[in-house]
Amino acid sequence: MSGPPRVRSMNVAPGDPEARPVLVPAGNKVRPVDGGKPVKKSTPETEKKPVAHSNPQCDSVPPPPAISKRQDRHQAVLKNLSSMNASCSSDASSTDSSTHSSGASSSGKVARRVGLALRKKQGGPKTEKVSSDNVNVEDADSSDSLEGKKRCAWVTPNTEPCYVAFHDEEWGVPVHDDRKLFELLSFSGALAELTWPTILNKRQLFREVFLDFDPSAVSRMNEKKIVAPGSPASSLLSELRLRSIIENARQVCKVIEEFGSFDTFIWNFVNHKPIVSQFKYPRQMPVKSPKAEVISKDLVRRGFRSVGPTVIYTFMQVAGLTNDHLISCFRFKECISNAEAMAKESSLNSKVKEKANEESTTEVGLLLTVNKLSFTSK
Q1: What does the pLDDT average to over 297-310?
Q2: pTM higher than 0.70, yes or no?
Q3: What is the pLDDT of residues 94-118, one digit of tens each?
Q4: Which has the closest alpha carbon to 161: 201, 112, 115?
Q5: What are phi and psi for residue 322, nearest 5 degrees?
């Protein structure tokens, strides 16, 4: 059987083999399939292509070739226009970007120059300050090390020079002079009100007020004049401390009468040999010691004032009865050697005195025998 009669549409181009009528009744229906020819299925790309002004009933039917050609032509024109706009916009953007980049680079150069100038202005003094600080630190280290010599930990670069000199020359050195021992005992008691740097700065004034710490001269001083308001002594210590110094001078004189010297009396407590502590750290150093308590009790019994165990231990440190320099301090070994030298010297002096006494007794004996012989001969 043959299919229905075919009616050719007027708006279809002749000679198009795939053209079919769309403007006649039932023209949008699919043509019957010829026997032996398979039906061509529409591809997904054809189904997905949008059709302009399409009828809802023919969404699944592809558009005719004429309309598709017009749409292709229209899309080509739009594509050309879009490409031209894109090229123009790209040119403009490239021009703007080049202008912006050149402007940014120039502005960046200017900003860098200004920033560099500011850094030079601000960085110059800082560099000089750092260098000066380094120099100061090096100077402080060099002064603290004293040509490679290390001091005790409590002597720092900020310590006053008078106290540094006192540490290097006097502190821990054995003292055997009665005046010097009395002076150091008075200073140890004055530490309850003053510090070592303050005492050392006023040391000359102390010596002027207390007559070079001569015990016999200080014991005869008038207490009322010394402690009177406005006196030079009243500017140094309180009335209690001033009266203690005068009273201690009187007791020192009594000790000298009993033992021959204050030096002999004090050094008898340590058998005339300094105590070596061998401390590694300042925290190991005590405030007082059993030996200081023994000396303190004996002095209090004799009538001394302001001579507690803490004061006496400070006196032992400064007078060299105990060597409390840290073992890392350069003065530790020096004080030991000084003590050994003094011990040898004192032993030699004692031997010389003994020999002199023996010789004197021998001479006296000879004189007596000679006198006896001469008397008997007569």
Answers
A1: 96
A2: no
A3: 445 444 444 444 555 545 565 555 5
A4: 201
A5: -135, 135
Is residue 325 marked as binding? Answer: yes
For residue 243, give the amino acid letter. Answer: R
Give CA–CA dist 50/69, Å, rounded.
14
Q: Check whether 3 has a pLDDT greater than 70.
A: no
Asked whether residue 227 falls in the same domain as residue 345, the answer is yes
Q: Are 339 and 320 in contact (CB under 8 A)?
A: yes
> Who contacts 256 (Cβ-Cβ below 8 Å, separation ≥6)?
178, 215, 262
Output the pLDDT for position 309. 97
CA distance 164 to 212: 23
Helix runs in 146-288, H state only? 161-169, 178-190, 196-201, 203-209, 215-219, 223-227, 239-259, 262-267
Quote the pLDDT of residue 162: 94
Host domain of residue 229: 161-363
How many domains does the chain fold into?
2
- Tell whether 167 is in a known binding site: yes
CA distances from 23 to 4, 9, 29 (A): 16, 7, 11
CATH number, domain of 345, equals 1.10.340.30
The DSSP result for 294-326, as a single string, is HHHHHHHHHT-SS--HHHHHHHHHHHTSEE-S-
CA distance 116 to 111: 8
